[in-house]
């Protein structure tokens, strides 16, 4: 049950904490400089941007260190900055809150962000608009930090929209490609649906508590009417679904792969898409009092983890496989966050390890594309393990981490979630277990198609290893993919305890029965994948199939078609009907009246013959008529 | 004294001749004379009426009609002359420039 009293009150910021705002301000300033200075900064723009993120990382590291040194009682620090605006009785302040939860996020964002900035120096070296790219990346880092460091939902929403904007700008960065431009718009529009949920939640909070600050909401939610708590829970879940590409708002994530690969790694794998998980964990006080909404979170997570894995099995585009896998892994996190106090720490744990190994694999995919002339079709890869050794080995670390190979990072974080899922509900546990098997299946497929087998390269493609500026971040991330799990395994629950109000569970390094079962299922998945893809040659064109499961996977579970049928179609039809009504009905009435008068006038005009005598005749008849009327009226 | 109805009948005949003349004759001058005929028929009615009722109102009105007729002749003849000068015709049917 919720243990609100264990949540310590934030203390005032002193020392290192007073400089917290620098973490956000430096990348924001750098983005502004790069965007405003224009071509002048082309030569050094990428270096400034990278330095800004590294400074940010330094601040995060310093804050983290002082937290580690300090007593646990004073680790939750709030730093009010200024009053944003006040209206009537309400006053909205801008303030930062750093606690055990947000500092982990800040470290992930700035740390992985720094590595990806460094990587992008090499990856985008030949792009004419590299400076602009780095400006957007800095903008993203600043917005994401606002999101995780805000001390109330309204400021969080500013960051939430900021990352949405950065995501839009970066997905459609290669705007000359119609597919990229469309993908950016799609992501933006689908996120608006989620934002609607966020807004409803924030308005409800303001109406109930008169404030949107985490402290006030958490304190007041216990006395709030149950119905409205459930409404807030569902509204927040809708917001989380939009940002984290969870079913039913998942369709934008695969298209988002049109963006440059560092963007996919940073925004659409490691950080932004996990904002939904952060939101649910941060709002745990609300969800614990709204069991229906909490169950909905579990259902959404379970459905998404299976749907993402399904998609991952059938795609041939390496980035889309990874995107499906991202959906699936975030599904695991959502599932853990929905289980309740038993799962929060594991959700965050998996979020961190996933941030490392998925960024690692995305950057690896970028390195592959770099060597393969921007080709992304795995059916044109094959046998790359000798051509690109560093990429292969780092990718292999990520692969072992995601399938949950013992002692790699994913092994710890994912197994905890599966175990917690089994304790929560047998069906959910089984789904999570099957998900782990499918994950092993499609990741092994990816490895076999990319690095093993025979060469299926296109004419004139000569794979080569990427420059050091790209491989060094890969190596660093590979190290984290391997080691992050074992380092944090026994530490993270205790660390997050004050922020989440949950006592740690005992964890044993000796595998539990569920753990052994998971290993067995993963082994089956790997073996099955080798059985299907590892033994024979892989066709260079996807074989035609009538298997509905494969077809659904290749078509992203027909999400676009479903959205088109359910939402786009009716909307377009309504717009069309309005258009027709306007043109035929309203314009018709106005034009018809005019035309009727015109026609009448044309008829009446004939009378004006121009012959004076006919006028005279008419006048005579008129006079006669008047005379007759007068006489008749006299008689009457 | 003659029956006053005879005056009215004469006036009616003159008016009808005038009206038919305006309608059937194309020559502007003839049409003009027909208009004068109708005006004078009206004058006869006014005078006869004045005689019948024993008042002077009708006779006064006659003077007004005569003045208006004189003014009309001045303007009308001027128009006809100027049209004749430009178009070499006094036919009322030829003057149809205002027709659409």
How many discrete structural domains of chain A?
Answer: 3
Specify the structural class of chain B. Answer: mainly alpha
Query: Into which percentage range does the β-strand content of chain A fall?
Result: under 5%
Portion of residues within helices of chain A: over 70%
Strand count, sense and barrel status of the largest sheet of chain A are: 3 strands, mixed
Strand order of the largest sheet of chain A: 1-2-3
**Overall pLDDT confidence of chain B:** 88
The total strand number of chain A stands at 3
Distance between the termini of chain A: 102 Å
Our count of helices of chain A gives 25
Q: Secondary-structure element order of chain A, as H and E?
A: EHHEEHHHHHHHHHHHHHHHHHHHHHHH
* DSSP helix fraction of chain B: over 70%
Q: What Rg of chain A, in angstroms, do the CA atoms define?
A: 31 Å
Strand content of chain B: under 5%
Q: Could you tell me the mean pLDDT of chain A?
A: 90
Major beta sheet summary of chain B: none
Number of helices, counting only DSSP H or I runs of 4 residues or more of chain B: 3
Q: Using DSSP, what is the number of strands of chain B?
A: 0
Shape of chain B: elongated
What best-fitting shape of chain A do the alpha-carbon axes yield? Answer: globular
Describe the structure.
- The complex is a heterodimer of chains A (about 625) and B (about 100).
- By secondary structure, chain A is mainly α.
- Helix content of chain A is about 70%, strand content about 5%.
- A 3-stranded mixed sheet of chain A has the order 1-2-3.
- In chain A, α19 runs parallel beside α22 (about 515-535).
- Residues about 1-5 of chain A have low confidence and may be disordered.
- At the A-B interface, α25 of A face α1 of B.
Give a brief rundown of this model.
By secondary structure, chain A is mainly alpha-helical.
Write the layout of secondary structure elements.
The complex is a heterodimer of chains A (636) and B (100).
Chain A: E1 11-12, H1 21-37, H2 45-69, E2 77-87, E3 90-98, H3 100-123, H4 130-149, H5 153-171, H6 178-209, H7 214-220, H8 226-244, H9 252-255, H10 261-270, H11 275-282, H12 284-288, H13 291-314, H14 318-339, H15 344-371, H16 384-387, H17 389-403, H18 409-424, H19 426-451, H20 468-488, H21 492-500, H22 513-534, H23 548-554, H24 559-605, H25 612-635
Parallel strand pairs in A: 1-2
Antiparallel strand pairs in A: 2-3
Helix pairs in contact in A: 1-2, 1-4, 2-3, 2-4, 3-4, 3-10, 3-15, 3-20, 4-5, 5-6, 5-10, 6-8, 8-11, 8-13, 10-15, 11-14, 13-14, 13-19, 13-23, 14-15, 14-18, 14-19, 15-17, 15-18, 15-20, 15-21, 17-18, 17-19, 17-20, 18-19, 18-20, 19-22
Chain B: H1 4-24, H2 28-53, H3 57-87
Helix pairs in contact in B: 1-2, 2-3
